[in-house]
Structures are given as C-alpha cells and as structure tokens.
Write a structure and sequence with these properties.
Elements: H1 2-21, E1 52-54, E2 58-62, E3 69-74, E4 82-84, E5 88-89, E6 92-97, E7 109-111, E8 118-119, E9 131-132, E10 140-141, E11 154-156, E12 163-164, E13 177-179, E14 186-187, E15 200-203, E16 209-210, E17 223-226, E18 232-233, E19 246-249, E20 255-256, E21 269-272, H2 276-281, E22 283-284, E23 296-299, E24 302-305
Parallel strand pairs: 3-6, 4-7, 6-8, 7-9, 10-12, 11-13, 12-14, 15-17, 16-18, 17-19, 18-20, 19-21, 20-22, 21-23
Antiparallel strand pairs: 1-2, 2-3, 5-6, 23-24
Length: 306
C-alpha cells in the first residue's frame, strides 16, 4: 500500500513539472512591430503617439490623443512616384502633412484629400513633384511649402486659402501658371521670387499691398495686372523682372516704394486707372523706376513720359 501511494505521488509531481515548462501561447501573440508588410492588412489599433506607423508608401504619426493622423513622410521602400494620401487611417482622419515631410522626395504627383487642413513649412521643399492639388480645406500655405519645386508647372489655389507664406513658391522655375483667388488677404515677402516660368500675373486687390520682393527675379514675366484695392507696391517687388513690358496699376495705389521696378529694362507701358494729378500724388520711393525702359504712363486724362 505504501509503495503504491509513493508511486502515485511521484506521478503527480512529474505532471506538475511538465506543465510548468510549457510556454503560454498568449505570450507570443503580441506584435510590437508597427510595420505593415502586407498593404491589405489593416491594424486594429494605433501605435503609441510617440512611435511612427509605417505602411508600404507612407509614414504616419498619431496625435497625442489618438484622434487623427499626420503624414510624417515617405516610407523608405516606397516604389510609386505617384502618392495618394488617404483621408482616413485606422479609422481616424488624416488631417495634416508634417513640416519637411516630402523634402527632396523623388515623386511626380501628390493627391491630397480634403481631410487635410494643415501642410507644414517646407513640406515639399526641393522635391520633384510636377502635379499637386491643394485641397479646399486648407486655409494657409505656410512659408517655404513648395520651396524650389522646380518641376511644378501649374497650380490652382482654392478659395479656402487666405494666406500665402514667405518663400512659399521660391524658385519654382517651371511654374507657368498660378491662380490666386480673392479669398487670399495676405501674401508675404518673396512668396514667388525667382519663378522664372511665369509670364503673366493678375494680383487680387484683397491682399491690400504687395510685399517686398514678392515677384522679384521673375525674369519671364511680361505682363502684370494689379487689381483695385492694392494701396502699396513694396520695395523691390518686381526687381530684375527683365522681360516685364506692361503693368496696370489701380488708382487705389498711394505709394510705390524704393526700387519697386528697378532693373526692368523692357518696361515701356504703365496703365494707370486714375488721372495724371492722382499719379503725381502717389508717394514714390528712391529709384523706384531705376533701370526701366522709356515707359509711357497712360492715365485716364492723358499720358506722362518717363
């Protein structure tokens, strides 16, 4: 009897030891890697806000409260030069593109959804994009957003935009056409400096004044129409616009600042929408017309020669 009991106790002890050596299957089921290798696989939870989330094309960052996502940049293994930003990710809206997100990226086009309300400074700085849409949800084009996007050819700014930052389109040398709506009330200095592909510009009166160097060194620009509502033409606003031949200026302008049209040797025609007396009353800075052509000013009641 004692021998049988001892054997039974030994068997129970052995079974207990074997159970302790088994691995808990649930311990290996958690996946801490945030990389999605299958583009059709949709994770069910967002990563911690401090960690990026990778897809085959884009890198996302969750907001602190995990209610929206920001496009942080391109995934290093992306293949397509045509980028489509989704309006939602993991069930949350994609609301922003981070500063410098696509800096120097080798891409040809970007499709941005209306869910995006913010595009950071320098987001497309120096990238090769040639086609891009600005969504109707955007209100501000930040400084340097499209800085040196030399392949960008045309752009329509939607009515939602109210402000264009400094150097936003700096040296976009192949930009041949841009439409600025009346909704824009501010265009900062050097916004279009060095856009040598532009040939004509109509400037809405809603911006109030032309900031310094706003179209400086736009050497392909031949015609500028400034609409009623503009009160001042800023310093070196059209500096070195060597092909500029004609400018239309409204009678709302009360000052033309220093060197506004300096080194515009082709400028021969200025159409002024007021009288000769009004033109002479405009405050003009030093050398505002230094280096221009022998222009004629066409006023409503006569002409004035340089």
């Amino acid at each position: 009897m004692k021998k049988a009991l001892s054997l039974l106790l030994a068997l129970v002890l052995c079974l207990s030891l074997c159970a302790c050596g088994k691995e808990d299957p649930s311990a290996t089921q958690g996946n801490t890697n945030n990389t999605v290798t299958d583009p059709t696989a949709v994770p069910t939870t967002a990563p911690p806000p401090t960690e990026p989330y990778y897809t085959p094309e884009l890198v996302f960052q969750a907001s602190e409260d995990r209610t929206y996502f920001v496009v942080a940049g391109l995934e290093s293994i992306h293949q397509s030069p045509e980028i489509v930003i989704p309006s939602t990710y993991l069930g949350c809206p994609v609301t922003a593109i981070a500063p410098n997100a696509f800096e120097h990226a080798m891409i040809t086009s970007v499709e941005i959804p209306d869910s995006v309300t913010s595009i950071g400074n320098g987001a497309f700085l120096g990238c090769t994009v040639s086609s891009i849409n600005i969504p109707n949800s955007l209100t501000v084009i930040e400084p340097g957003t499209f800085f040196a996007c030399s392949n960008l050819t045309n752009l329509i700014i939607p009515d939602s935009v109210t402000s264009i930052g400094s150097g936003a389109f700096y040296h976009c040398t192949n930009l041949t056409s841009i439409t600025i709506p009346d909704s824009v009330t501010t265009i900062e200095a050097r916004a279009f400096i060095g856009c040598t592909g532009l040939t004509s510009m109509t400037i809405p009166g809603s911006i109030g004044s032309l900031a310094p160097e706003i179209f400086s060194e736009c050497t392909g620009l031949t015609e500028v129409i400034i609409l009623d509502g503009i009160t001042a033409i800023g310093m070196t606003a059209f500096y070195n616009c060597t092909s500029l031949t004609s400018v239309t200026i409204p009678d709302s302008v009360t000052s033309i600042e220093t060197s506004a049209f300096v080194i515009c040797p082709s400028l021969t025609s200025i159409t002024y929408k007021g009288t000769m007396e009004q033109w002479n009353a405009i405050q003009k800075g030093d050398s505002w017309d230094f280096g221009t052509g022998e222009y004629t000013i066409y006023c409503t009641d006569g002409t004035i020669s340089k």
